Amino acid sequence: MDLMDIKTKDLVQKYNFKFSKSLGQNFLLDESVLSDIVEGADVNEKDFIIEIGPGVGTLTAKLLQKAKKVTCIELDNDLIPILQQELGEYDKFQLIHNDALKVNFNEIMKDEDHVKLVANLPYYVTTPIIIKLLKGNYKFQSLTIMIQKEVAERINAKPNCKEYGALSVLVQYYCDTTIIRKVSPESFMPRPKVDSIVIRLDRLSAPRVKVKDEKLLFDIVRAGFNMRRKTLWNSAKLTGISKENLQKAFDHCNIDPKRRAETLTIEEFAALSDSIYDVKKNN
Ligand code: SAM
To answer: Going by CATH, does the domain composed of 214-281 fall within 1.10.8.100?
Structure first.
């Protein structure tokens, strides 16, 4: 099949494909969105692309036109023969039948440089997949994904707005974030109930801030946002530190304990985390 001829509606009809709600199957119809994803991901002939959830291969076909290699990970048994039939003849296409949450991405990336991930993600696994990829220390350059609008807004949020939370801090600790475009439900079949956004996460060569104890940083971030309406003082107490030492830690990093987590930049979270670390270590 010519890559230009891969069209979602035609293939769904040809194979009498039945959509699975539980696998988050909303396939893209809109050509302009497909092109914007490929352009937004800045795909070129040097790139080794990993696509999570190719569906019937509509986005895959566009990626194959530009990239050096495209490896797809698809969970649905029914889509495997369709993808093999439609795209199997292309040497640069590789298909892995597995759950993206279970695969070892290092085995897929091997020694490849220029690794980029691109996906119209099944919404039910968006956050676990992002966390797996970011915390897994994999050496990809960027992750360009279509996700639910509200999740993209949380990922992209800056301090002092209601969307800013633990996910914003986690993603921005590892990546720069760029919103590529909004996508309305009419661009899919079947139509989802929510609006979507295509967002690119560019992995930084090192985390945005250097901290003495990464786990402590994320414990403090989580505790702070779990009790959004409470002061930092109240949430930091959960790290098991005495009142006296907590006061010392806040004094040392010069952060007002009456502030709330949603007002802190990542740099301030890091400073607070390192102060708590030091006070704990010296006692
Ligand atoms: N890329 C296609 C498109 O844009 O039209 C399909 C996108 S659809 C939103 C999500 C795809 O991810 C489906 O093909 C679904 O079967 C697949 N999928 C769902 N859960 C998965 C998982 N855990 N691992 C890999 N693929 C998964």
So the answer is: yes
